[in-house]
Amino acid sequence: MLQLRPNCECCNRDLPPESAEARICSFECTFCEPCASGALLGRCPNCGGEFVARPRRPAAKLADFPPSTKRVQASRLRFSAIAELMSVASNKGSCPLCSESNECAMASAASAESPCWCTQVSFTAELLASVPLNALGKVCICQRCARASASRPPVSSNPSIERTFQRPLRALWPAAHVER
Fold first, then answer.
1. Sheet holding 22-24: strands in order across?
2. What are the structural domain ranges in the chain?
3. What is the pLDDT of residue 90?
4. CB atoms within 10 A of CB 26
5. Other C-beta atoms within 10 Å of 16: how many?
6. Which of 26-30, 74-78, 122-126 has the highest mean pLDDT?
7. Helices in the chain by DSSP H: which ranges?
8. Residue 59 has pLDDT above 80, yes or no
9. Residue 135 near residue 94, CB atoms below 8 Å
10. What SS3 class is residue 7?
11. Torsion angle, alpha carbons of 151, 119, 166, 132, to 10
12. In 3D, which of 84, 83, 90, 67 has the Cα closest to residue 12?
């Protein structure tokens, strides 16, 4: 039987048994809809599973089968990681290095049909290594940061690493432009 946990593990929002906003994974980790679809991008941070709407128990059955009263909340460390993810997810139009507009044509619904500037250029290994891990594959680098990196001499002396990163961004991070 489902526990019907009383709160969102991410933001601690109350989720009473009759809430249509509750989302659970197969282990019953419980989150509110805004956290589940926003910050967590539809995946449970505990198990990686998908979220589904939590079924609502009929009111007549709640007396015999009460919901859980134990509140579960993410640890401070995990909560700060979730907050970082939320920040990145909400700033897809900003460069992860300088926070300026990345002018990504593929992320913009209005110009999704034209190829983005980033599919036509190469990025150095050093530039890609400077992108925060939580932004890799989720947020585009801006042209200014890409140009600045290209004008600096490479730090790496390993030619195979240099060749790996001398491909268009789309080849490295195909998921960067999937969501529009």
1. 30-32, 22-24, 52-53
2. 22-89, 92-177
3. 55
4. 11
5. 12
6. 26-30
7. 33-34, 59-62, 76-90, 125-129, 143-151, 159-164, 169-172
8. yes
9. no
10. strand
11. 80
12. 83
d(CA 128, CA 137): 10
Do residues 100 and 151 lie in contact, with contact meaning Cβ atoms separated by under 8 Å? no
Please report, as a single letter, which amino acid is at residue 11: C
**Beta-carbon-side half-sphere exposure of residue 166 (alpha carbons within 13 Å):** 9
Tell me the one-letter amino acid at 147. Answer: R
Percentage of the residues of the chain whose pLDDT score is greater than 90: 28
What is d(CA 144, CA 5) in angstroms, rounded to the nearest whole number? 47
pLDDT at 63 over 80: yes
Tell whether the torsion through CA atoms of 167, 48, 50 and 34 is positive or negative. Answer: negative
109 burial level (CB within 10 Å; 0-12, 13-18, 19+): exposed
Residue 76, CA distances (Å) to 10, 69, 82, 152 in order: 10, 21, 10, 39
